[in-house]
Amino acid sequence: METVTLIDLGPILAAILGPMLALMVVLMRYQHQDSVKTRELISGAKEETRELISESNREIREWVAEQLERLSDRLTAELKELGRGLADARERLARIEGHLGIGGVRPLDGAGEQDSNAA
Question: Which stretches of the chain are DSSP H helices?
Answer without folding.
Answer: 6-100, 111-118
